[in-house]
Amino acid sequence: MSSTPTRNRLAATRSPYLLQHADNPVDWYPWGDDALRLAREQDKPILLSIGYSACHWCHVMAHESFEDPATATLMNRLFINIKVDREERPDLDRIYQLAHQMLTGRGGGWPLTMFLTPDQVPFFGGTYFPKTARYGLPAFTDLLDRVDAYYREHRPQIDQQNHQLLDALAQNQALGTAGRVDDTPLRRAIGELQGLFDTVHGGFGGAPKFPQAPLLERCLREHARSNDRQALRMALLTLEQMARGGIHDHLGGGFFRYAVDGEWTIPHFEKMLYDNGQLLRLYALAAQTTRSARFDAVLHTTGHWALREMQSPEGGFYAALDADSEGEEGRFYVWDQPDVQALLDDQEYAVLARRFGLNDTPNFEGHWHLRVQADVADIAKELDLSSQRVAVVLSGAMQKLFTARSGRVRPGLDDKILAGWNGLMIGGLAHAGRHLKETAFVDAAAAAADFARRVLWHNGRLHAAAKGTEGYLAAYLDDHAYLLDGLLELLQARWDSAHLAFAVDLADVMLAHFADTQQGGFFHTADDHEQLIVRTRPLGDDATPAGSAIAARALARLGHLLGEVRYLDAAAGTVDSAADHLTQHPLGFSSLLSALEEQLSPPQTLVLRGDPQTLAHWQAAAHAAAKPGRLTFAIPAEADNLPGVLAHCAPRGPAVAYLCQGGSCGAPITDLDALTAALA
Questions:
Q1: How confident is the model at residue 315, as a pLDDT?
Q2: Is the Cβ–Cβ distance between 329 and 293 less than 8 Å?
Q3: What is the pLDDT of residues 164-222, one digit of tens each?
Q4: How are strands ordered across the β-sheet holding 320-321?
Q5: How far is residue 270's CA from residue 58's CA, in Å, rounded to a whole number?
Q6: Pairing relation of β-strands 470-474 and 271-272?
Q7: Res 3: pLDDT
Q8: How far apart are CA 113 and CA 103, in angstroms?
Q9: Residues paired with residue 299 on neighbouring β-strands, in sequence order
Q10: Beta 470-474 vs 461-467: how paired, if at all?
Q11: Backbone conformation region of residue 644, classed left if phi is above 0, alpha if psi is from -120 to 50, else beta
Q12: 510-546 as b/e, with b when 16 or more CB fall inside 10 Å?
């Protein structure tokens, strides 16, 4: 008679990542009062393991150690074991990644493995630890014994170190001297990027290579600001090489997390919503700048991937696709040559093999991962075909591979819906949809915004996450800022007064609960959030743009749109409070540089009123050139009860334009030619 294995406490959680560990023999707790109280009562150190569902090395450590009964027995005897999903609890991840860096002198990553005293202060840590000693790392079980012994035998030293660490964490959040900053950091940042730029393959630095969307946006914005041709070249070469590389899914659309090499060829195969939301917006700006059909194609495939694979029936977007399927990283995406040949006729294979290098040496563990190796014109010349014929054959061959791939076992889907990441995707789809005139993209962005208001907004406060149609967890600054920024982008693609009202609600909550009223700027957590060992300020970018930076930019834009001084003052105070950071290390604060730029030169705010057909022509004229410093809102004549200064932007005839910059507005414009001249 068989018995059903006992599931641990993670079985009662919502996170797909935590649920992956619900059957571990480890006596896992989610972060919370129960685990923290038990650690204090038993005077046991806490083993804190932080990861996420699409993390390959998190899976490796789980299979090697957390699923092993002997290792679990040791963990359960020596520690209170807490498992955290970094995507649900970025507050904890931010704190303990920083602590890891301070304790070890090295950058962190995932899985993050930290050992804490019962009062939550870490005294030792690392990332991945193998089951048996290798890679210069100790065996995990040996490490557990040594950490336990050190905790029992060296408490005075640990207490002293913890005191020093808490002081260092507090000092790390200090802002320095506030003040006004000129455009020197903008110019310095581009100069520093030139020193890091890979002039052959694009990107900054060597392997591994990440998209680093805020840096590329900085380049495009600097070109728009100062006509810096080198800044434009850095952005365009990088975006082109990424689009050709294996970091881009050529069959299904979308981008993987990063490339393990310097040529963008082989990725870590997870697909994250936040990357693709940022890249949609970035490629849209690049496409507007260059009129590149290649960039338009990237927008089409990436946007349709998001709609097809990542949007829930209720409208919100899921968090991520795993790197692994059937226990192997990348298995869903890679190909064997005979399998490709069996799917295609001779001409199709001849074209596709040249396009993606299938006749060359395999590039991923004996298999082929697709990356562009030859242009259509070169293939046409080699095969004595027209370029048009090659393009048609290539499209058909790729569709056959996509159909065949769709029948494989799919990577795991992390189906939680995160407020902030949805904000990034709303902004990306809205910008791409506006540029491409792709109604489906704008529809999807609007559906996600409606989901956020309907499910994530409750009793005047925002939830960070949802599972199905149930919101949970208190939201962070980034959630509010990204959603506000995304809504402002969506309002430029399609006006909806309900979305403006939601934007105002989010802005007001940021000011009421996240603002530092003493020094300016914002905290990552609200004033009524759980008290942790430090309250952090998100100033620098990482995989996502800094929440404070996006808050400053979005609040300033909303403030200019409505004439609301509270928002303008908060935005200016955020930039001023970070003066030392911007002047000393501008490249580490790229998104904040964009907020600085819009403080130095406020964006043009163009409000169009009129009938929909006429507005469409006027809106197209306003978007004819890439102007990251211009916001255009086409508001139908029938929209009423508009807030702030919008109430004074009354309809006049078929269409009228109100063009403002900073606190100054010109006379109403009722002629399209006059508007075009004013925008030139």
A1: 98
A2: no
A3: 999 999 999 988 888 999 999 999 999 999 999 999 999 999 999 999 999 999 999 99
A4: 271-272, 320-321, 413-414
A5: 12
A6: unpaired
A7: 45
A8: 13
A9: none
A10: antiparallel
A11: left
A12: bbebbbbeeebbbbbbbeebeebbbbbbbbbbeebbb
**Max CA-CA distance within the chain?**
85
d(Cα 13, Cα 500) in Å, to the nearest integer?
34
Contact 316, 448 (CB under 8 A): yes
- Residues 480, 548: contact at Cβ < 8 Å? no
- Give CB contacts under 8 A, 24+ apart, made by 671-674: 672/617, 672/618, 672/621
Q: Which residues are CB-neighbours of 601 under 8 A, at least 6 positions away?
A: 225, 629
Query: Cα angle vertex 459, ends 456, 460, to 5°?
Result: 80
Q: Give the whole-angstrom CA distance, residue 636 versus residue 623.
A: 18
Using the Cα atoms of residue 124, residue 129, residue 134 and residue 136 in order, give the sign of their dihedral. Answer: negative
**pLDDT of amino acid 5:** 59
Report pLDDT for 625.
85
The residues pairing with 367 across neighbouring beta strands, listed in sequence order, are 364
Number of Cβ atoms within 10 Å of the Cβ of 30 = 20
Peptide bond into 111 cis (omega under 30): yes
Task: State the Rg of the chain over Cα.
Answer: 26
Token pair, residue 433, equals: 């949809």
Delineate the domains of the chain, giving CATH numbers in brackets.
9-172 (3.40.30.10), 333-407 (1.10.10.10), 604-679 (no CATH)
Report the candidate in 432, 424, 423, 414 with the shortest Cα–Cα distance to residue 452: 423
Q: In the block, which residue shows the tokens 């890891």? A: 100
427 bridge partner residues: none
Distance (Å, rounded) from C-alpha 99 to C-alpha 57? 21
Element holding 465 (H helix, E strand)? strand 461-467
pLDDT at 1: 38
User: Cα(434)–Cα(602) distance, rounded to whole angstroms?
Assistant: 22
| Pairing outcome for strands 461-467 and 320-321 | unpaired
Mark out the alpha helices in 384-534 (DSSP H runs).
Answer: 387-406, 419-436, 439-451, 477-493, 497-513
CA distances from 134 to 72, 100, 141, 354, 639 (A): 20, 21, 13, 40, 66
- Report the relative pairing of strands 28-30 and 80-85 from DSSP bridges: parallel
Cα–Cα distance for residue pair 314/366, rounded to 1 Å: 41
CB 567, CB 507: distance < 8 Å: yes
Give the number of residues written for the chain.
Answer: 680
Q: How far apart are CA 336 and CA 34, in angstroms?
A: 50
- DSSP string of 491-529, one letter each residue: HHHS--HHHHHHHHHHHHHHHHHTB-TTTSSB-SS-TTS
CB 528 within 8 A of CB 475: no
Q: What is the pLDDT of residue 4?
A: 46
The full 3-state SS of 149-207, as one line of letters, equals: HHHHHCHHHHHHHHHHHHHHHHHHCCCCCCCCCCCHHHHHHHHHHHHHECCCCCCECCC
Contact call for residues 15 and 54 (beta carbons, < 8 A): no
Measured in whole angstroms, the distance separating CA 377 from the mean position of its chain's CA atoms is: 35
Q: What is the 3-state composition of the chain as percent helix, strand, coil, each rounded to the nearest 5?
A: 50, 15, 35
Q: Write out residues in the chain with pLDDT < 50, as ranges.
A: 1-4
User: What pTM was estimated for this model as a whole?
Assistant: 0.97
The pair of three-digit structure tokens given for residue 430, joined into one six-digit string: 């809205």
